[in-house]
Design brief:
Number of domains: 1
Order of helices and strands: EEEEEEEEEEEEEEEEEEEEEEEEE
Radius of gyration: 15 Å
Number of strands: 25
Structural class: mainly beta
Shape: globular
Strand content: 35-45%
Length: about 200
């Protein structure tokens, strides 16, 4: 199903794989999830893909979300997968509502991160686990939270490892998070206030 101009309905992922990439919406519950990020030639896909309402993950194995405009919320509770190299990248998104990822449990080699997203509401990252070494001697590079612009509050707690900048810090667009509300918990030290405009 093409993602471009999807009607305003909720996309539900239950114990499956969701990948929005290159103008495709794919759900696959047969076989292992992909291990490559949703990029084309090393660059995020164009941000002209649109999901009209919500994306909801009910114990998803993984969610690969890159450069998609979401008219509602992106919510994921539980899930995970023990395959080495599994990732949950949420990058370059434009989310009108809230971004919440709670309780995703990745195995050895797994990575979770939220990078360069624009979130109109709150961003909540809690109870997630990943175990992947990073570049430059970073022992565990999972739970990278950087370069996000959050209109509401940014709350991070009980993640393993705790939310961090990781090895992507300093690359174009990968600086501190900007928050219009309050940064709470692990993300408090990863944030600058959103300037009034």
């Amino acid at each position: 199903m093409p993602v471009d101009r999807v009607p305003p309905i909720t996309t539900l992922v239950k114990r499956s794989v969701l990948e929005i990439r290159e103008s495709r919406l794919e759900g696959d519950d047969d076989g292992p999830p992909p291990t490559e990020p949703c990029e084309t030639n090393g660059q995020p896909s164009a941000a002209d893909d649109t999901v009209g309402s919500n994306i909801i993950g009910d114990a998803p194995l993984t969610m690969y979300l890159t450069a998609v405009t979401v008219g509602g919320n992106v919510l994921s509770v539980g899930g995970g997968f023990s395959q080495p190299g599994l990732n949950v990248p949420i990058k370059d998104m434009n989310i009108t509502g809230t971004l919440m990822v709670v309780g995703w449990q990745g195995g050895q080699g797994a990575w979770f991160g939220a990078l360069r997203n624009h979130v109109g509401g709150n961003m909540i990252i809690a109870g997630n686990t990943g175990f992947r070494p990073g570049d430059g001697g970073i022992p565990n590079d999972s739970t990278e939270i950087l370069g996000n612009t959050v209109g509401g509050n940014l709350t991070c707690w009980a993640n393993t490892p705790a939310a961090l900048y990781g090895d992507a810090y300093g690359e174009p667009g990968n600086g501190p998070n900007s928050v219009g509300g309050t940064a709470i918990g692990e993300c408090a030290s990863l944030t600058t206030p959103l300037s009034a405009s």
